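Note to self: keep these together.
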Amino acid sequence: MDHPAYDTALKLLARRDHFRAELREKLCRKDFERAEIETALERLDELGLLDDEALAVRFVEFRSVDRGWGPRRLVAELRRRGVDAGLADRVAVIDDETHDRALATAVRRVERRAKQGWWRLPERRARLVQSLVGRGFSTDTAHRAIAELAAERETTDHETDDQPGDPGRFS
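Structure:
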């Protein structure tokens, strides 16, 4: 018996895990009939090859700490991928330790792209705060993280003091 939608779905899952909605969308784009797609998805469910909750948990674990994504970005990205709103909200609640590790990753990434001496100019600080907000952290958390980092840089980074092009240089 020929099951082209099921076979295609298996091939897609062999490359990487997919959320149910993502898989449905890809199969729809390949012009399979809606009934055939639903039959294929049900069969994959029965075999334990589709599990949105388990995949969402792994997604949050990886994207939070390894990519530096905060809770808001995690929820938004899960929703964009077709995950149920309730499930997305539930799995994107990360514990304090994971939140702190995700924030540390995010801060490292946004500072890496910042111009030298960024902590001396309010508009550059604001740009870093906005980058953290865009990564899914609250505005308060972003302000606090950048203020702490700026204070640390101000007290520890003297190698750029009074160098040409230094925004804090008076001359």
